[in-house]
Amino acid sequence: MKLIVLSDTHGNIDSILREINKIENVDLLVHLGDYSKDVGKLKEMLKVDIINVRGNCDFYDYNTKEEEIIQVKGKKILLTHGHKYNVKFGVNKLYYRSKELGVDIALFGHSHVPMSLKHDGVLFFNPGSPTHPRNGSSRSYGILDIGDEIKPILCKFNP
Q1: Which CATH architecture describes the domain 2-156?
Q2: At a CB cut-off of 8 Å and minimum separation 6, what does 36 contact?
Q3: d(Cα 49, Cα 105) in Å, to the nearest integer?
Q4: Sequence-distant (≥ 6) Cβ neighbours of residue 49 within 8 angstroms
Q5: Is residue 7 a contact partner of residue 29, using CB atoms and an 8 Å limit?
Q6: pTM of the prediction?
Q7: Angle at the Cα of 44 from the Cα atoms of 16 and 11, rounded to 5 degrees
């Protein structure tokens, strides 16, 4: 199963839509917050299921959960924006939450810096930001290919 993972789009999704439309065999798009309004446009323009969580800039969106757990191909996945776990300063708090919940994958954003790290049986995956990268990173998004194994792919965004 192929998932596209986005975070921190902040209202700039036209070029993102063009990039995503090039990707074949997508089963699910996950948006990890900071800009829930973008999800509505993504739903209109793409023919793929979308699930999203609310970020710290989505204070107006009371209908979207701040955290969600989904199951994909037998893998338990935590979706969070990451601000409640201070991910700009490391994934320690997110690690403890992940272990508490017994997840295989923790998807998060907020820092605008891509990351793929497997630690103690948990994959920590941040797609970065396709619009506002930070700390010298490139504009990016992520792909998770989940089968017998989990294959995380960080993709540089080509506008």
Answers
A1: 4-Layer Sandwich (3.60)
A2: 52, 54, 55, 58, 61, 64
A3: 19
A4: 27, 28, 29
A5: no
A6: 0.95
A7: 45
Name the amino acid, one letter, at 79: L
The DSSP-derived string for 29-45 is EEE-SS-HHHHHHHHHH
Residue pair 68/45 in contact (Cβ under 8 Å)? The answer is no
Q: pLDDT for 93-115, tens place per residue? A: 999 999 999 999 999 999 999 99
d(CA 70, CA 129): 22
Contact criterion met (CB below 8 Å) for 27 and 2: yes
Q: For 64, which DSSP code? A: S
Is residue 68 a contact partner of residue 51, using CB atoms and an 8 Å limit? yes
Instruction: Give tens-digit pLDDT for 60-83.
Output: 888 899 999 999 999 999 999 999
What are the residue boundaries of the structural domains of the chain, listed by start? 2-156
* 3 CB burial (10 A radius; 0-12, 13-18, 19+): buried
Reported as half-sphere exposure (CB side, CA atoms, 13 A), residue 37 has a value of 8
